[in-house]
Automatic annotation (TrEMBL):
GO biological process, one term: protein import into nucleus
Annotated Exportin-1/Importin-beta-like domain residues: 104-247
Domain Importin N-terminal: 29-95
One term under GO cellular component: cytoplasm
Lineage: superkingdom: Eukaryota
Designated name of the protein: Transportin-3-like
Pfam families the UniProt entry points to: IBN_N, Xpo1
Stored PANTHER family: TRANSPORTIN 3 AND IMPORTIN 13, TRANSPORTIN-3
GO molecular function: small GTPase binding
């Protein structure tokens, strides 16, 4: 791609990919968008689209979030180091703009982008603490839970050098107590919100599997809640599954 396309052009091609019934046109759109995602222009275009995510259709927002995740995951080397902080702050702001209507896939893509950035941005000190402070202050609890869930998982997914992986594993262990206190607070405020209860359990499970939470810390409100859910035959299927995975992780 020789030059940066306009946002209107990108919107039109995304619309064709998702909503045009013509298979030939859809294939052309898919190929064009794939080339865009591989280009250096994808960084700016995705960021600008996400700035207007509340004004766009879900398809365009998902494309921009997916593009941002792919760029951070596969093309982080394209960015000069002086731009890393601004990228971090932009991703956090984009996550803060999400809401209950944004769609889980969009939040997950942005969460993965921020997690992968934290793993690769070695100059970012105490990223877990920073993320909790920023997103909880903005009231973006669902987005924060998603970031905290995928972060330990990405340690073994993203291609990292051995030293960086071990360094980040220690970072997770150091942040474990803070994460537990955050999850306890979430648990106390879940009420009858099944979706939130499920996200808390999944997040806790992710940190247990990553060995980022020590055994003495296991006995807390979250795990007690998991056992209570398992003993309640009226629990929803998704919540029961999350509780089962949580308890199973303790025996790994």
């Amino acid at each position: 791609m020789e030059s940066q396309p306009s946002l209107d052009t990108v919107y039109a091609v995304v619309h064709t990919l998702y909503l045009n019934p013509n298979k030939t046109e859809k294939e052309k759109a898919s190929q064009w968008l794939h080339q865009l995602q591989k280009s250096i222009y994808a960084w700016k275009i995705a960021d600008e689209m996400l700035l207007h995510q509340n004004e766009l259709g879900l398809e365009a927002v998902y494309f921009s979030a997916q593009t941002m995740r792919q760029k951070v995951q596969n093309a982080f080397f394209e960015l000069p180091s002086e731009s890393h902080v601004s990228l971090r702050d932009s991703l956090i702001e984009h996550l803060c703009r999400t809401n209950d209507t944004s769609g889980k896939n969009i939040i997950t893509q942005l969460a993965l982008a921020l997690a992968d950035l934290a793993l690769q941005m070695s100059a970012w000190e105490k990223p877990v603490v920073y993320i909790i402070e920023k997103l909880s202050h903005k009231g973006s609890i669902l987005a924060l839970l998603e970031v905290l869930t995928v972060l330990p998982e990405e340690v073994n997914v993203l291609k990292l050098g051995k030293n960086r992986r071990e360094e980040f594993e220690e970072e997770l262990k150091a942040a474990g107590p803070i994460v537990i206190e955050f999850l306890k607070t979430c648990q106390a405020n879940c009420g009858d919100n099944v979706s939130l209860q499920t996200k808390v359990l999944k997040c806790f499970t992710s940190w247990v599997i990553a060995n980022a939470i020590k055994l003495p810390e296991i006995s807390n409100d979250v795990i007690v809640s998991a056992f209570q859910i398992l003993s309640n035959h009226q629990s929803s299927g998704s919540l029961h599954d999350a509780a089962t995975d949580c308890v199973s992780a303790l025996h790994r």
